[in-house]
Amino acid sequence: xxxxxxxxxxxxxxxxxxxxxxxxxxxxxxxxxxxxxxxxxxxxxxxxxxxxxxxxxxxxxxxxxxxxxxxxxxxxxxxxxxxxxxxxxxxxxxxxxxxxxxxxxxxxxxxxxxxxxxxxxxxxxxxxxxxxxxxxxxxxxxxxxxxxxxxxxxxxxxxxxxx
Length: 163
Fold this sequence. Notes:
With 163 residues, this protein is an alpha+beta fold. Helix content is 37%, strand content 15%. It has five helices and five strands, in the order H-H-H-H-E-E-E-E-E-H. Helix 3 crosses helix 4. The radius of gyration is 18 Å and the shape is globular.
């Protein structure tokens, strides 16, 4: 994932003014290993910047996504953001629904699609959702124990590579 400094550099290189609020936003995503909703970001930023509107937060998230410093993923519960991957090559992700640990997919599935020849693809997304090894084990245990208060978590949401 991009570091705080890399996110700030990405903003600066694209002509975005680096305000204190944007530095704080970059720090949040540079240090947070997982995905955040716009509401999560708004609540975090609101503690430091009174009077900050949700629209301002969301607009900045969209700008940072458009610049490529943030990734946007649509989960069942809504859109979430995280710092973009550090990897230079184009790739997609497998994402654990429990702990949100993310694994890169080493090839692009678009290469094997059989779309019509006269269709020009300008953008695509491909995410696979499921459960990592640890969470799958926990959900199996949870089903056996049927304890509604058990919490399941995996490491700290760090990106891992599939080989």
